[in-house]
Amino acid sequence: MKRAELLKDLRNVPDYPMAGVQFKDVTSWFMNPKDLHEIAESIYEYYKDKGITKVCGIESRGFVVGAILAEKLGAGFVPIRKPGKLPYEKVSIEYKKEYGFDRIEMHKDSICEDDVVLVHDDLLATGGTSSAACAMIEQFHPKKVMANFIIELTNFKSRERFPKDVDIYSLVEMDEMEGCD
Ligand code: AMP
């Protein structure tokens, strides 16, 4: 499926959740079987020979394709969640958002030194959440950390926020204003 064809099905919601944001609603892809298959299959093809042992999905839209990828890659799935959602012993990391700070958590026994880790989220914007997730995972010294997004909003130029050794691949790179009338 071509990029343009996929983008035709992506709903853009202006001014959500706040004025000025062009919200890329990936649920308009997830509800479409052809799109969901195409997205999961294309990302799987990119990572299938990279020896990934754990996929870390970021709450909550990162859980959908993250879990599909984990199963297809023969890897385990690790949820990265907002504070207070995980039941067992956790590690957490605080990160800076546009206004104020936020925190994400993961179970402390999720990653070991033998792991090759793929962090997955639906969308890369400022990179605050996913770069913090990579830094949190690197505390466990896995063999390698990679990061993947379905969409990367290139206008944020956020790749530089990531630890240097993290390889990043996004299925669709686009400007936030693309597809807005
Ligand atoms: P980030 O700014 O990269 O930390 O983005 C954090 C999270 O917010 C991502 O997991 C996205 O799901 C969501 N997000 C941020 N900006 C947008 C946007 N324009 N459209 C859809 N989701 C967004």
Outline the structure in words:
27% of the residues lie in helices and 33% in strands. Strand 3, helix 4 (62-73) and strand 4 (76-80) form a beta-alpha-beta unit. The strands form three sheets. It has a five-stranded parallel sheet, with helices on both faces. It has a two-stranded antiparallel sheet with strand order 1-2. With 181 residues, it is α/β, with parallel strands linked by helices. The chain has helices at residues 3-8, 27-30, 33-47, 62-73, 128-138; strands spanning 11-14, 22-25, 54-58, 76-80, 90-96, 101-107, 116-124, 144-153, 167-174. Bound molecules: adenosine monophosphate. Adenosine monophosphate is lined by residues 21-24, 58, 61, 121-130, 176.
What labels describe this entry?
181 residues, alpha/beta, 5-stranded parallel sheet, two-stranded antiparallel ribbon, 5 helices, globular, binds adenosine monophosphate
Radius of gyration: 16 Å
Q: Low-confidence parts lasting 5 or more residues at pLDDT below 50?
A: none
| Helical run tally | 5
- Mean pLDDT rating: 96
Helix-strand category: alpha/beta
Report the β-strand fraction as a percent range: 25-35%
The beta-strand count equals 9
As laid out across the biggest beta sheet, the strand order is: 4-3-7-8-9
Bound molecules: adenosine monophosphate
Query: Largest sheet at a glance?
Result: 5 strands, parallel
